[in-house]
Specification:
With 642 residues, the chain is mostly helical. It has 26 helices and 5 strands. Strands 2-1-3-5-4 form a 5-stranded mixed beta sheet. Strand 4 and strand 5 form a beta hairpin. Helix 9 packs across helix 20, helix 10 packs antiparallel against helix 20 and helix 13 crosses helix 18. It holds the Pfam family DUF6541.
């Protein structure tokens, strides 16, 4: 924990950069309360990611000063627009309108959520510089380093990929508060332990009301699921998806607030959050569209059942939604090749419908047992909403929609289901995480249900009836007892397994390997390139030390100079094309190792195996499991970089 305490400056800077710019903008637009704070990370991310790309196009280097300028201009435009086209509450002064006034219950609830998350996450990760052993981590860490080294935070650097996650972290690390690896770990903690609980409290208060019981229940409900944030902290590693899901409750809360208040400023604040969601992970935007459609359909059906609308109007509206939804699903992959590629992902671990239901409802995903405490809370929450809080029935419908998507992704072999689940790569893990967003509301709704059951208990009910505060405390404390209490060991073991796997071949680059590569890096002249099999961990030299590595992801790409060098490096004398490729990237060094990560693609790096038998290289130094070679073939010493 001493090492985590040393990361407090990074935690503060990452949180400030993520919260402050967006909060200033949405406050200027008139959004108030916890909703403004909850939606601010999405707005901040949109500002950073979008204007970093604009800066690159204008030939400017991105940094904290450009972010400050962009924020001030955006706030000014928002304030001017609200002055011209909308009206503020007349009873509020200018300072109160802009700065707001925190609600004590909400503040305490958010603090509870933060403490719970930190207490469960930090010990499981271990050290702040611990590497999560997932191949995608290599790409994400290397891209953050690329942003920092080049000052180019564009969505197309080095290739087209949503830049919200990477641009936020790289911008926050500019003051030198942390290196790339620990800084990124702290960033994921900020998402899971700050952004997520704050968004959950805001969402629950809008779905179920602002009572103290519900507010505190929201804090405990934010820590009830293992599917999110625990699983996405390490599996995949789906860090952009982690960020997107963490941002979703705040945006959804503001959407519900705007729909009820019909204030233009709140709608504009919600609209300002959408670019950020799309620039982190586009499926977050799709999720919001899904939730909005489900909310609209459920609200229309409820209006018909309560005779608030004639069924003719309800049927017409539902028909329009159905036509638009089906048309959009069919047309989207035709218009977007990238989406079509995303929808083509196939997974082999298909399960039965019943097993899929157990996984998503019972939480038995990547763990051995059903989370019975969570199941009971979900059931109680649904029952309470159906009987006493019917205004939240659309949220139950949102959760059911996520369950249906999960079952489709986990069990269906039909090709058409990819039209729906393909936005999440047909990946049930991402959909289980998404189900936690409305699921938090259902778990929080279990608290008033438990209070009612306690009041009706034959022996203790009368005594508790006279002590309403004690009854509420007992009801809300049940939530962490049957979730964190019963399955705390399970979630700890899962998260620890991601960062500290038991099998050596599941480790990309351990601490000993990092130190060996650090010492070998000191031998390499600055700027000169290095090549090595990605599966031995050498691509991380770029993220960790700034070494100019040819490969910056696992595995090797299947096109370009990367595959050319990977398959032809063992025949430098007879492959002038390989020599030309090495010269283009100024690759003058090679590293070999006996260590091989489990995600091995030997056909892509066949030329880089067993460098000791390669006549075109000369051993320079061995350190631990790694040996550094100087490339002597190709006459690279006489060539200048292309």
């Amino acid at each position: 924990m001493v090492q985590w305490l040393a990361t407090i400056p990074a935690f503060v800077v990452l949180s400030t950069v993520l919260l402050l710019p967006g909060w200033l903008v949405v406050r200027a637009l008139g959004a108030r309360g916890i909703e403004a704070l909850a939606v601010s990370p999405a707005v901040s991310t949109g500002l950073i990611a979008a204007f970093a790309t604009v800066a690159q196009r204008a030939g400017l280097r991105w940094g904290l000063l450009p972010l400050l300028v962009v924020t001030l201009v955006s706030v000014g435009v928002a304030m001017l627009g609200m002055r011209l086209f909308s009206r503020h509450d007349p009873e509020l002064g200018a300072a109160r309108r802009f700065l707001g006034r925190p609600r004590p219950d909400a503040v305490v609830a958010m603090a509870i959520g933060v403490v719970l998350a930190l207490a469960t996450i930090l010990p499981a990760i271990g050290r702040p510089d611990e590497l999560v052993d997932s191949p995608d981590a290599v790409y994400h860490l290397d891209r953050i380093r690329t942003f920092l080294e080049t000052g180019n935070y564009s969505i197309v650097n080095p290739t087209f990929y949503p830049n919200g996650f990477h641009a936020w972290i790289a911008t926050s690390l500019l003051p030198g508060v942390a290196d790339v690896l620990p800084g990124t770990n702290v960033a994921t903690v900020v998402l899971a332990a700050v952004v997520w609980p704050v968004g959950c409290v805001a969402l629950v208060r809008h779905a179920l009301g602002t009572s103290r019981l519900v507010t505190y229940a929201a804090a405990f409900a934010s820590a009830a699921f293992i599917a999110f944030p625990t699983t996405l902290l390490g599996w995949g590693v789906l860090w952009p998806n982690l960020m997107a899901t963490a941002l979703t409750p705040g945006a959804l809360a503001l959407m519900l607030q705007a729909a009820r208040s019909k204030r233009i400023g709140q709608w504009l604040g919600f609209a300002a959050a959408l670019p950020g969601l799309a620039l982190v992970q586009p499926n977050a935007l799709v999720a919001l569209v899904l939730f909005a459609l489900v909310w609209f359909v459920a609200a229309r059906l409820r209006a018909g059942l309560l005779h608030h609308l004639p069924w003719v109007a309800v049927s017409r509206d539902l028909a329009v939604v159905a036509v638009v939804a089906v048309g959009g699903l069919v047309a989207a992959p035709v218009v977007s090749e990238r989406l079509a590629s995303t929808q083509s992902y196939a997974w082999n671990d298909r399960v039965s419908i019943w097993t899929a239901l157990v996984e998503v409802v019972g939480g038995r995903l990547q763990i051995a047992s059903v989370l019975w405490g969570l199941v009971v809370l979900l059931a109680l929450g649904v029952a309470w909403i159906a009987v006493r809080a019917r205004a939240a029935i659309p949220v139950v419908a949102m959760w059911l929609a996520c369950v249906v998507l999960y079952v489709m992704a986990a069990s269906s072999t039909a090709s058409w289901t990819a039209l729906v689940t393909g936005y999440w790569y047909n990946d049930k893990v991402r959909l289980a995480a998404l189900a936690a967003v409305p699921g938090v509301v259902l778990v929080a709704a279990a608290a008033p249900a438990l209070r009612e059951l306690l009041r009706r208990a034959p022996r203790v009910g009368a005594r508790l009836e006279a002590r309403p505060v004690a009854t509420a405390i007992v009801a809300v404390v049940v939530l962490p007892l049957v979730t964190l209490g019963l399955n705390g060991t399970t979630r700890h073991r899962m998260l620890t397994g991601f960062f500290q796997p038991g099998s050596p071949d599941r480790v990309i680059l351990g601490f000993e390997g990092q130190e060996s590569l650090r010492r070998l890096n000191a031998v390499i002249p600055a700027g000169q390139g290095v090549v090595g099999r990605p599966e031995n961990g050498t691509p991380l030299m770029w993220a960790l030390f700034g070494t100019n590595t040819l490969y910056r992801s696992i595995p090797i790409p299947t096109t370009g100079d990367e595959i050319l060098i990977g398959t032809g490096f063992d025949n430098l004398a007879g492959r002038p094309d390989v020599c030309d490729a090495l010269a283009r990237h100024d690759i003058r060094w090679a590293i070999d190792s006996s260590h091989v990560y489990w995600l091995d693609r030997p056909e892509r790096s066949s030329g880089l195996k067993d460098l000791a038998s390669n006549d075109g290289v000369e051993a320079v130094r061995t350190d631990g499991a790694y040996t550094l070679y100087r490339i002597t073939g190709c006459g690279l010493a006489d060539r200048s970089p292309a």
